[in-house]
Amino acid sequence: MDPNKNTREEFTNAIVSRPIPEFAxxxxxxxxxxxxxxxxxxxxxxxxxxxxxxPYMTPANxxxxxxxxxxxxxxxxxxxxxxxxxxxxxxxxxxxxxxxAIGRTTFTKMLIxxxxxxxxxxxxxxxxPDQRGAHPDFGEEILELARHLxx
Length: 151
Description:
- 58% of the residues lie in helices and 0% in strands.
- The N and C termini lie far apart (33 Å).
- By secondary structure, the chain is mainly α.
- Helix 1 packs antiparallel against helix 2 (26-43), helix 2 (26-43) runs antiparallel to helix 7 and helix 5 runs antiparallel to helix 7.
């Protein structure tokens, strides 16, 4: 795929439709499948509508918290995909990448579930001052997916 031509929706569809190998470890499979579902829901959230059909590398029309989490979860999935799905014989560096990806998954859960004016809102307002007070709700479906990301 060409990030200068293919849209965020096309990239999302490619990432979430990637098959899970039969030999994948149960942990790898769990994290990847849950992240795939969450990424798809974030991509198709109404707050992503201004961004979804833009080329991947084009600056987002709306840099809101849904967009931030979509980007973060997509990059986390890429980290999982970079590892051998059976998780056997990982080098020290690969084990660190595995732990980093799990940590990012836990951080995703924390950011999404922090529904009071929380850390994600503060991060968005600091980085993008035009987003002050403009924080779309994730919705119950995304909240429920986040609750079970790292069970």
